[in-house]
Amino acid sequence: MEEAWTAYCAGSLPIGACVTDTDGQILSRGRNRIDETKGEAPYVCANILAHAELNALLALQIPHAARESAILYTTTEPCPLCMGAFYMSGVRRLHYAARESYAGSTDLLGATPYLSRKPIQVFGPPDPLLEALITALSVVSRLSSWRSAMPAVIQSWRETVPDGVELGERLYENGELQHMQAEGWKVEQVVDALAGMVVI
Questions:
Q1: Measured distance CA(198)–CA(20) in Å, rounded
Q2: Which of 11, 29, 127, 199 is the most exposed place for a label (fewest CB within 10 A)?
Q3: Which of helix, strand or coil describes residue 6?
Q4: How is residue 131 annotated by DSSP?
Q5: 29 SS3 class
């Protein structure tokens, strides 16, 4: 969530990811940086391919053999690009906190002989409240961006996470999230405030 909030504040899509070891120690982090103009190596930025999971995997600096026990955590179900990068990275476990019914691509696993041969484990949203908060951030981001406010995307999310879409639309209309950003709120403050606004 920290990476997702940082991405939102930087004007990119609010998606964050990290890779951990089995003890939960963070090995690498990544965020969506498609609208960030500068970034340190090895992160990709200012490019439509600068997705959170891709950046977290690019930053992962461990031997290939150790990757099989690593875990990729992401706020949002990976798109086809990130699902492919995850599959090819050597990491074997994926946890995502919010479904992405428009572009989410975990269902690609098993779709081809290549995508069927690795022992991948995927775990979906563990917490409906967290899923709603992540979806709300994405709705505000989409509605705020002239190039990505696609009605079909938001309608798809409404069918999957209606409480998150409703909160996101409210936040967009009242400008509260932009206010939090302008005041420099930390992600913990944002999560606490938004959690009190969700009706699940």
A1: 29
A2: 199
A3: helix
A4: H
A5: strand
- Residue holding tokens 């899509």? 13
Please count the helices (runs of H) and the strands (runs of E) in the chain: 9, 5
- What one-character DSSP code corresponds to residue 107? G
Helix, coil or strand: residue 77:
coil
Distance of alpha carbon 60 from alpha carbon 17, whole angstroms? 12
Q: What is the pLDDT of residues 109-158, one digit of tens each?
A: 999 999 999 999 999 999 999 999 999 999 999 999 865 667 899 999 99
Number of other residues whose CB lies within 10 A of the CB of residue 48: 9
Angle at 22 between CA 116 and CA 105, to 5 degrees: 35
**C-alpha gyration radius of the chain:** 16
The kind and range of the H/E element at 19 are: strand 16-20
Question: How many other C-beta atoms lie within 10 A of the C-beta of residue 44?
Answer: 18
Closest CA to 29 of 70, 74, 69: 74
Q: Pinpoint the alpha helices (H) of 10-119.
A: 52-58, 64-67, 80-89
What pLDDT, in 10s, does the model give residues 19-28? 999 999 999 9
Distance between CA atoms of 168 and 180, rounded to whole angstroms?
14
Structure token digits, residue 188: 């913990």
The reported pTM is 0.95
Cis status of the peptide bond prior to 42, with omega within 30 of 0:
yes
**Residue written as token pair 């070891």:** 21
